[in-house]
Amino acid sequence: MKVWTGAVHAPTTAATRLRLGPLCAHLEMENFDVSRWTFLDTASTNAWGVGGRKRLLPALHGFESIRKAMVNISNIGLAVIQRECLPFNNLFLERFLASKSPYIWDIDDSLWTNDASVARLIRGGPKKYETLLTNAAEVWAGNRLIADWCTAMSDTPVFLVPTTSPIPIVPGLPVLPRRLAWVGTPSTGPFIEKLLTELQFDLGNWVIDVVGADIRVPPKVNAVLHPWSQEIETRVLSRAWAGLYPIDVSHPLALGKSALKAVLFGGYGLPTIATRTPSNADVIVDGQTGRLVDDATGWKNALEEISVDSIRDEWGSSARQRMLDSYNPEKWAEFQVQRVMRYGK
Q1: Of 300, 302, 297, 310, nearest in space to 286 by CA
Q2: pLDDT tens digits along 7-41
Q3: What CATH number should be reported for the domain holding residue 41?
Q4: How many structural domains are present in the chain?
Q5: Which residues of 249-279 are buried (b: 16+ CB within 10 A; e: fewer)?
Q6: Same domain, 8 and 149
Q7: Whose CA is closest to 256, among 82, 107, 88?
Q8: Domain shared by 301 and 222, yes or no
Q9: Is 316 helix (H, G, I), strand (E, B) or coil?
Q10: Is the model's pTM score more than 0.90?
Q11: Residues 296-306: pLDDT tens digits?
Q12: What is the spatial distance between Cα 312 and Cα 333, in angstroms, rounded to a whole number?
């Protein structure tokens, strides 16, 4: 059977790489004919991330890719759509897909909660995503909040499929001076920038590695900024003491975010200090694999707690074991392959 997979952003970006990537690889091992498509290629995705008027050129490049997609869609047996095909208030490609085959909607971000009027006008509001949901054969929801929304809005079968990350064969080994790690994107950079500003007088004994966002570093903070690459991410996490996962809960997309950072950090044997959200609470066992916090005082106390060698080692070991048991990407990819097989082979 031919399986077509589609997403907005290039295969190098987190959601496409970590959700569609393992699925496609496992399907190919099972001799499925897999066609991978993204609206934006890597160069256009990078240009798109700049935002504003500079998104015009990558968007034009993306529209050329639609023509190629429509050629590959013919005679497919199943489609898997990661979030959406186009970042606009238009379901043209999804409707065309639905006329050819059933599709699975793989959704790991509550895009419908973005209340910015301009963003909603361009990208589309809840009605667009309700249509994607109701037309799907089934849904793979990245976290419990998304799964609950889908269940409330439609009778479409919903399966909870968390976003996972490859687990290194051996955990990391922290180095001196002790380093804290954050890995993200420009869109989430303001979260770590705000945290470092609030804690700038409490971070004197730490070096903070910030990967994937060009933020303003407060003068009192010893932070090192890195562009994202798989090599840099691996190097930073292999030597870190703990991971940071701040979220601004006032942001309209915040509560729908997955706990990917906690999964990523845990795989390297790092405990995670994170803002308390439903998704983070599902992954982080407070006081066993990390600490869930609600305010600046909570962050300060958690950093003091995690600085104790025995606590760090115990929580880090427990975090890694939890990832191996419950968030192993191999196991989840096998589950998805079994779901796909229900549509044919």
Answers
A1: 302
A2: 999 998 998 999 999 999 999 999 999 999 999 98
A3: 3.40.50.2000
A4: 2
A5: eebebbbbbbbbbbbbbbbbbbbbbbbbbeb
A6: yes
A7: 107
A8: yes
A9: helix
A10: yes
A11: 999 999 999 99
A12: 30
